[in-house]
Amino acid sequence: MQQTRRSFLTIMGAAAAAGLARPRLARAATSITVLNWQGYGTDEAWAVKAFTEKTGIQVVHDYFSSEPEMLTKLRTNPGVYDVVLINSARVSQAVADSLVVAADFSKVPNAAGLSPDLVNSANRNIDGTGYGVPWVWGMTALAAREGGTIPDSYAALGDPANVGRVALSDDAVTMVALVALLTGQDMNKPTDLAAITDKLKSFKPNIKLMWSSEDQWNKSFAAKEFDLSVYWSGSSARSKHISKLPVQFVVPKEGALVWMDTLNVVSGSANPDAALAFINYMIDPEFYVEWATKVGAPASANSTAMDKLPADDLTRLIHDPKYLKTSTIQAALTDEQREAFNNLWQEVKAFYAA
Amino acid sequence: MPLDPANSTQLREPGGSRKPLPPWASTAALLVPTYGWLTLAVFLPLCTMFAFSFLTATPMGKAPIVFTFKQYRAFIDQPYLLGVAWQSLLMGFWTTFFCAVLGFFAALALVRATEGKVRETLLILVLLPFWTNGLVRVFSWTMVLREGGFLDYAIHSVWPGAGSVGFLYTRQAVVVGLVHGYLPYMILTCYIALVTIDNTIVEAASSLGARWWTILWKILLPMAAPGLISGSVLIFVPVIGSFMEPRILGGRVGVTMGTVIEDQFTQAFNWPLGAALSFTMLAVVLGIFATFSGVLRRGTAL
Lengths: 354, 302
What we know:
A: D-Maltodextrin-Binding Protein, domain 2; D-Maltodextrin-Binding Protein, domain 2; eleven-stranded mixed beta sheet; two-stranded antiparallel ribbon; B: MetI-like fold; 2 domains; MetI-like (chain B); ABC transporter permease (chain B); MetI-like_sf (chain B); membrane (chain B); transport (chain B)
């Protein structure tokens, strides 16, 4: 009895091992697994098909619905993923846990066209090593109604000329970073939160509403409820192009809040070369132009790809690479910072309401 | 007993009478599904949230979690929350007040002036808004109340020179949206209370010379008090915690305890603070009900 059970277990174990081993062996030749938000570029069916036809590499996708979930998936499934999308603000966290490997640009020919401002970002250069290939980026700054005065500073949010005509983003991190720029502070490490609170409170007579979604923004702007707003670059292109709203995206002299997403090769990937080949394809101008013009996409980190867009393309016009010189890329926040920013924003909102 | 085959066969014999279950057993059997479900769906999550409210951070992820009372100090550390809480209570009061006035008279009209098919149709019309999504109803109010909205349009078509009366993004707009959303509760509870009033009492009063306002104040209102009070409780509690209506209709002034708590859960990812604020508000509401419990008991005992 004992003997039988043991041999039964052995057989089961062997079968399980074989079952586990088989997919890895099979995909060793030609398959990579990509971890990303669903519907965010890498899983476009036409793109995956074109990539497979070109290289013979199969692409499998898995998705996450929050950044903590992405990190958890990488931690608990070593060896399963080959490519992962990480917001550059989270790269240091992934590197600290050795979840991703350094970016090897020698195997990514298209990296030659990457914007140096993005490549040199402190977010991805950790202890002298570059991690993650910059993929796409976008900005948060101002949006003004066409035909009115175009502001050159965030101070316009508190300008008496705009009484009752301003909308803010109902997001603590955005608003604190933006006013940190206005008060001359490092937006990623503001030290004088009291100055930011006072500046935000001084906007009170101008504030009409605080928006929390692109849809809400479009409806209110179309109803002419405000003329000046904190807004996202990609959304402003959609509001103008799809909703036909008379909106102009403005990056004032203090610069914009820039976010950047990077594609990384995962530690323990069985096919780092195939992973890099896929990343190379993702920043290829050919793929990007089709993605941006047929589906709609944020700005590519590859300036060569941006130059291939039609001259009148809104995404291209709005995401002028010169803004990267004057702007800062949003970095990771500690839990203490996040809590302090949120409490600050709640206090400001209560002040607006009082 | 089931182990004994002789006994079990005996039970199945024709004519053998089965022992009736004790009364507590059938009561328990009928109550268990409901209370089991309530325990699972309401009580346990509430207990979890209560436990969360004593932690330093949301217990998801790697950050170390420590027991603390600091979340309950929020009203001391962030004194502006007192103003927010006061505004939320005022909002709850005004919404309940307008619902009570409008709801009582609507129910009175339904009971005293309609019958049969007409009454059924009107009752269904009262419930009709419940069949549409709350978000849609609130957004449609923004189209009515905004400057140049339907309200302005209607007024300008009668009086072209009039200025704008749009009052979107004010506290009044929030109360309008909330009254619209919660009025059906009040109409229904008042209707149920009023419909049970024996018509002969009203006839007796008027035959003895009582005027309509005497009948209203001395007979209808006291007898409908249970409906008014249960409707008010049904409305006051959720209104204090409402966040969608203030956020969409309130604009800049739409900051309530509901929106503050919602932000803690959805934006700040600070569940402990959100939970602590919720339980503090729960304590305040219970305190209010305890203060007025005498009135409530007298009202509902009728």
